[in-house]
Every structure is written in C-alpha cells, then in structure tokens.
C-alpha cells in the first residue's frame, strides 16, 4: 500500500465523525483531538434521538446497551448500536450506527464506523475501524511498542513517524480480521481485505487481499 492509498479505504460518509476525520491528511491524526470533537458534536445531537446520560456520554434512544457495560466518556453510541454484557468503553469513542460491541470487549480512543462488529473479547485502542469491519473473537489492536518509541506506519513508498506513542490500527471498510489475530502498532488493513486467524499483521496490507501471514498475501477473488 502506498501513502495515497489510505485515502481510499474509508467511506467517511459512514461515520458521525467522518467529516472531522476527512480534515486530516491521515486518519490516525484525528485521534489526537477525538475527545474534544465528541464533546462538540454531542452538544448538537437531537434530544428526541439521543439521551445524554452523563456530562459526556450520549446514547441513541434506539441503541441496546447492557446494564453491565461500563460507559466512560467522551462517548457517543449511535443509532441501532448494541453494547453487550461487560463491555468496557474507557472513553473518547464513537460507536457507529448498527455497530456491535460485545462481551468483555474494550474500547479506548477509537472510532467504529457504521456496522462494525467487535463482538467477542476484543481490544480496540487508538484505532479506526471502517464501515462493516469485523474482528473475530479475541482479535486485538496492539497500540504500544515494546520499546515505547513513537509508532511508524510503513508504506511501499516510505514510512511516516506518527509522533504517537500509542497507535493501534486502521482497518478499511469491510475488512475482516480472523480470530485471535494481532494488528501491531501502526498496522493498516485495506478495504475488503481478509486477515487469517492467528495472524500477526505489521505494516500495511493492500485492499482486496487475503493475508495469511507475513510474506504470504494473495489477491482476493470474487
């Protein structure tokens, strides 16, 4: 994947904060001020559609949220979303329309576009998951390097030092990550790309690919 390709892996119309993300050259740059943007948007959400349950948490009136879920703000849970038993949302998160946050799944400083599914024991930190993306059971985004240095995103045409010590992954629209896979800090998975279970993903993976393991990536045929 080349640097310019990342602009084509997310349909920004499929997120409440898509316009905000679109202001930046690279999507992960939007994570820095995400909490402030959530607070700004929250003030304008229609009261007939959203409940403000605390100073910085808004929940759509038709969302299904378990009483056992922890909801830390700033947070917006959008229309038709489902937050299941013992989900742990630490704040600065947007759960898009129709998204599913499952049992014991943890979210922190992230954007889930519409129809995203993170339904079983997932960790999504400092990450952006595009429309319809899915993480299989136990799949996680790793957001901190072992040496604690800033995260670099590696493209075919060079690397970008993000300046962030914590950065998880960007997964394109309809990306499907298999069970117990790990997306390393700064991983980018293209649109419609499938990642095999138990895979370790580093760097970037083009759209419309099947990622089996490092060095074993094939074109996805339809």
* Overall pLDDT metric: 97
Query: What general form does the structure show?
Result: globular
* Low-pLDDT regions: none
Gross CATH architecture: 3 Solenoid
The SSE order reads: HHEEEEEEEEEEEEEEEEEEEEEEEEEEE
Largest sheet: 9 strands, mixed
How far apart the termini lie comes to: 20 Å
Tell me the CATH superfamily.
Hexapeptide repeat proteins
What does this structure look like?
The protein is mainly beta and about 220 residues long. A hairpin with a 2-residue loop joins strand 17 (about 150-155) and strand 18. The protein is globular. The strands form six sheets. A nine-stranded mixed beta sheet has the order 1-2-5-8-11-14-19-22-25, with helices on one face. Strands 15-20-23-26-27 form a five-stranded mixed beta sheet, with no helix packed on it. The protein has two helices and 27 strands. The two termini are about 20 Å apart. Helices cover about 5% and strands about 35% of the residues. The protein has one domain: 3 Solenoid (UDP N-Acetylglucosamine Acyltransferase, domain 1), CATH 2.160.10.
């Amino acid at each position: 994947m080349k640097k310019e390709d990342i602009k084509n892996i997310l349909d920004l119309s499929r997120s409440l904060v898509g316009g905000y993300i679109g202001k930046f050259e690279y999507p992960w740059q939007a994570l820095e001020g995400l909490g402030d943007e959530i607070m700004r948007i929250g003030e304008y959400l229609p009261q007939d559609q959203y409940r403000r349950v605390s100073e910085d948490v808004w929940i759509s009136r038709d969302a299904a949220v378990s009483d056992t879920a922890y909801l830390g703000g700033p947070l917006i849970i959008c229309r038709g979303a489902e937050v299941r038993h013992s989900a742990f949302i630490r704040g600065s998160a947007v759960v898009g329309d129709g998204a599913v946050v499952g049992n014991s799944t943890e979210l922190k400083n992230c954007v889930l576009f519409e129809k995203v599914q993170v339904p079983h024991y997932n960790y999504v930190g400092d990450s952006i998951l595009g429309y319809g993306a899915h993480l299989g059971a136990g799949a996680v985004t790793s957001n901190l390097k072992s040496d604690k240095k800033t995260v670099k995103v590696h493209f075919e045409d060079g690397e970008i030092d993000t300046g962030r010590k914590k950065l998880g992954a960007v997964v394109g629209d309809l990306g499907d990550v298999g069970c117990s896979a790990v997306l390393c800090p700064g991983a980018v998975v293209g649109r419609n790309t499938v990642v095999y279970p138990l895979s370790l993903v580093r760097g970037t993976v083009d759209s419309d690919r099947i990622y089996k393991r490092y060095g074993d990536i094939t074109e996805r045929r339809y």
